[in-house]
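Appendix B, record 7
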Amino acid sequence: MKVAVLSPVAWRTPPRHYGPWEQVASNIAEGLLKLGVDVSLFATGDSITSGKLYSICAKGYEEDRTQDAKVLECLHISNLMERAGEFDIIHNNFDFLPLTYSRLIKTPMITTIHGFSSRQIIPVYKKYNPTNHYVSISNADRSEDLNYIATVYNGLNTTQFEFNDQPGDYLLYFGRIHHDKGTAEAIEIAQKSKRRLLIAGLIQDENYFKEKVAPYLSDDVEYLGNAEPGQRNKLLQNAYALLHPINFNEPFGMSVAEAMLCGTPVIAFNRGSMPELIKHGKTGFLVNNVTEAASVTDDIKNIRRRDCAEWSGSQFSCDKMVQDYLALYQQIIVQ
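Structure tokens (predicted):
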């Protein structure tokens, strides 16, 4: 079987720091390669893969701002579509634009929908309902207007995360610095529970950081910048708990699965996919507001960290994700 994996071109695949879609695309490609599948990755030129790499730019447009994002996207997608006949199936991890080529090629396409930036993009997905194959990354993140063939949870490379049963005493916020992700709420939770908070992540909203985060930085609330993979592992495995007080219905939370894989329980607002990721009372707590979150921090000590790691490893591993996708590929090709 020859598979083309289409990744975005905002960041390198896999990303150096931030880039969840790129990370999942990489995990899919490398996981398939381990099973002996012939994989071609369409990504930035500095991407890393054991398979074939096809690119139209040396770096992503978020890492080289001299480039025009739309131009790169058009060149990138057309680079694959003009070679579509070389593959048995195309796995699209690049949102809705590649769908517009799907009726012009004979190769079947499977599209993982990594969330909806807005409801305005749904008409594009809806148009290609009859000729495409949609996969959701959680049952919570589905549109009633679309047809899905499966839900496949994002998979982690479990070798990159180490279990730790002797954590530190700090709380951790790990994610984009943005209102949606609840950085300010994490600070409030830490203050109410009188615990130290470490913050790591890309500043996506400069004004939000200046107004809601920077004024509260101190010895007890520390911003560490954007963590690299090695630092990420240490921060996650040594945390007393991960705080995930999201203000939107998140399709999937990579850091939630990563923290649990290290044995670290998660306190999350009960929105979006969180009930699918977290087993309430066993791998963390689902709460509704800052006050509730602060009130359960002491109960984290009753969570068995090994249960967190075993749950995450069984549900959110790269091996499971790839096996699920491979079964879908075979089903689609037979059809």
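Remarks on this record: The chain has a mean pLDDT of 97. The first strand starts at residue 2 and ends at 6.
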